[in-house]
């Protein structure tokens, strides 16, 4: 909205289907591409920007203001910004939060993120809601649509794209207290820091392994349980991870998966995944726990889901534990004859409500009783 | 748990007359609850003594008891009806207190009535300051250091321990009554004494003042299975120290990070779950230390409240409607989102816009009142504005207030002396937000402004941007000079064309013309609870300047009903009642009924009353673009009080049809000179009067018409600045006061009819026939504002001849003014001589009262006549009078201890109640009538 202070550099957003939105440049001047998606959270933008599951995506934030409480070095989910670009209505570099370190403009410049503001984000959301997720390009350096169209054409579709190995840790590392009673082997497909923190807080000593680590390496560390992390991309394009998950299941030790980890667990028991029309991204998604009857407000970020029909066909071995109250999609499952369970949403929240953190306790007790 | 099948009949308790701190938001919640329960096939019985409410109308409930809110009335109802359960959480503290009293007297138990939606132990815990404080500490939450005191001595000791600044909060009072801030020891004694006196239990909490901490409110809903959702987080722009009802508030929170918010959310849920196990709504207030982000709990209200009404309008999530369903056993996950209809009610709304709520004060009605704001609520109404950014919402809120402001400053009303401005920043008053902008404009550093106001720097920085934009704008000479992008930015942050014009010292028309030329037009966005993630079915819109317009006009025949803006003294809930009926009648007559208003407390702005709702300022620039988009067949201006009526001229000028009585006739009734000429032509007597442009003229007129005279400015509401004076000296003084406060106004000087009786008639006319709805005689003599008078329906002491004359004059006037719709005529009667004092060509304050007393849907009839679909002869009107009905004014003087409580020509009451009596021997009536003589001797 206000450009009296910032110099108003024009920027453009072009969608794969040819739709164009004119706006103003924010963050770094440049161009960036990715799959466009929207998040409806009213708080937690910095956590979202740094969540590796958003790797390669152009993020539309629906909240009216973005940047209004600044940024803080400690409130991140990974060491850097992971989104490919930001699309917002009111880019608001002024902040008052005394605990903050940088303004959003300073942060974006430091992290080289290209953004566009002053576009009708609500119109964009309505467009994606009707037409589905698609690739897009933001540019504040080249405004010629023909050139942008050509660049956009070269961007591969999200479906079939393996991205997890790009955001996974290159080397294994440990986290937590070495003498902790429980050891958890984490398979990192782009794990959020707060997931690891939730486990460490509950007395787990973690070793975080690169995505493509073979099962034998994990097993050699003699963990009490295994964790399949969240991450970006299409789970169906990750046969290496599915086979690791299958091997873990054969070992019969507790296994917990979140988001991408949930999808990988499903694939490991031959439940197919699919690309959703435009995904679930926000911090207000209603989920019902079918085991307890309680409802929880959850933080979500996924563009793929697991097949409901296939799970219901395998009711003898797989139990649906959580469902989405808005659209009845599968939010959680449990294997009946294995100590393995997973959820599609983010119990660690960050950002979002802490209603589902009990799942980490469940995982811990599953490891403890054995 | 699904619906509890054993509940087939529910009693809802209303909140009684409007007082400061408990206003028409409870009509909104009660009506919603009633409709929600009836949807479930439950029979609803309602008790409320307030006749101006929509909840006490047959469209809302099955059985209505317009009775005093006493245990005796409850017993009477329970004797007459089989009631399974009582829902006491919809009528504010009044309803809760009544339910608790009935409970302690064993009434509910005796009649086998269950109390639903509430837990009495929880209520008592939250009301008892000391128990509440201890409970919060027990569950691990923080509260401000405090001590309870039951005596003056204990209070002094507590203050010594805690130190200054501190707060005194009396236990068990409403709207912060009796509470105060004490900055220095000298102020303490008086404040403590007052606090102890105001508390019914003679108990106060002496608490450390957390000055400068930020204040937030959360609205929660919980079901019987302990599922909890947060419907809305509201940030108070005014920090700790100002009652939330008197604070400018913003949603969503503007300065909260996710970590800070989740901490607040966790604590709120923990607190709610610790309070018994009732199913329903709850409001929790927190203070946050801006330095460390630590939180303390300020207060919890385990019921729907003023803030839940606001939260419902702000998010589109109807809290009272859902709370009522939770009270009868439903779980949140069994209900659906009322806006999308396809998703779950167990969710947390997300906003892609910003709302700003601004209180509306009526200090001008209380000369001598202390304007300083504090712990005790003083505002009488509020507005809400929606925008795509904070500044747009803020400026739209200013435009909604009807304070003759065109936005946040830049409208000729600014203050220009820095010293005056700084003083007002420190001493918080009703105009602080405007003074804050003045200070920034005058170059006062942001830091100084922050230090004086404790307002979060984010809000100050935002407002500073307006100042910068204004400086840039002032560089241009004519509208054509403004660059298109900059012009759009100005509109995006909420500037009205009038403000832009004032800054450039050009005409508003020039700005508008250029704007239209550039195609900078309003678009409309939907309030849909979900930031467009799901398709919404409910047509609830606000305007902004964005690219896509979502409000697609239908090709149906449509009419627009104009609301009455914020509640204030002289114009309140009664017009909400009128608008609701107007909308229902228009729908019934086959029209698409479109509502425009900005008052979040109203039922008429509930998204499922009108066919289409525009939550917008009743401000010309906003109306114009809606009307251009919708192209309605006409606009109804008779139902929205003076606010809607005074816009009639604009409509007329632009050729927009006004439904019912046409503009020239309305103008004739409003224009004092022309109206008296009409009275003369019709041979109707009226008190002699004159119009004065200065004091000399006023003195001359007074000499002609003879003292005592009634002096007032023309065109004001509720008798503002109206006085009766008896000599030249008094007259001169008062005329000068009027010119000082209202420079461009004229002054009316009327001969005052001493010791006259006052009466009024409400009537409907279809241009041919006149139907007299009711004739009311005031118990108080002429000279007391009609809004402050007790009105008896029908008349009780006037002669048959006088009544016949009044009817005759009303018929003559209605026909002469070619009224199509409603008219209210006020009379003074001295001996057998009947004088007409004034005529209002619109719904009046008493229209709902008569409709209730006679059980006739007068407003629906009147609306259909305005629409032209019906004539009076099409209706079979059968009033059902029973004895006498008395409309009794109710005041909120306890909020203004130093105000002159004597009644006069200026209205001071905030609400009213209805009382039915069988005959004139009724002791209640005799008491009122005795007081009449007291007034007469004064």
Number of domains of chain B: 7
User: Helical residue percent of chain A?
Assistant: 10-25%
Secondary structure category of chain A: alpha/beta
> What structural class is derived from the secondary structure elements of chain B?
alpha+beta
Describe this structure in words.
The complex is a heterodimer of chains A (370) and B (938). By secondary structure, chain A is α/β, with parallel strands linked by helices. Chain A folds into two domains: 144 residues, Carbamoyl-phosphate synthase small subunit, N-terminal domain (Glucose Oxidase, domain 1, 3-Layer(bba) Sandwich), CATH 3.50.30; 205 residues, Rossmann fold (3-Layer(aba) Sandwich). Chain A contains eleven helices and 19 strands. Chain A has a ten-stranded mixed beta sheet, with helices on both faces. In chain A, strands 1-2-8-6-4-3-9 form a seven-stranded mixed beta barrel. In chain A, helix 8 crosses helix 9. The longest helix of chain A is centred in the middle third of the chain and has 13 residues. The N terminus of chain A is likely disordered. Chain B is an alpha+beta fold and 938 residues long. Chain B has seven domains: 108 residues, 3-Layer(aba) Sandwich (Rossmann fold), CATH 3.40.50.20; 64 residues, 2-Layer Sandwich (Dna Ligase, domain 1); 133 residues, ATP-grasp fold, B domain (D-amino Acid Aminotransferase, Chain A, domain 1), CATH 3.30.470; 164 residues, Carbamoyl Phosphate Synthetase, Chain A, domain 4 (Orthogonal Bundle), CATH 1.10.1030.10; 136 residues, 3-Layer(aba) Sandwich (Rossmann fold), CATH 3.40.50; 63 residues, ATP-grasp fold, A domain (Dna Ligase, domain 1); 183 residues, ATP-grasp fold, B domain (D-amino Acid Aminotransferase, Chain A, domain 1, 2-Layer Sandwich), CATH 3.30.470. Helix content of chain B is 36%, strand content 20%. Chain B has a seven-stranded antiparallel beta sheet with strand order 14-13-10-11-12-15-16, with helices on both faces. In chain B, strands 31-30-27-28-29-32-33 form a seven-stranded antiparallel beta sheet, sandwiched between helices. Chain B has a six-stranded mixed beta sheet with strand order 17-18-21-20-19-22, with helices on both faces. Chain B is globular, with a radius of gyration of 27 Å. Chain B starts with 8 loop residues before the first strand and ends with a helix. The chains are: A alpha/beta (370), B alpha+beta (938). The interface between A and B is large, with 59 and 63 residues.
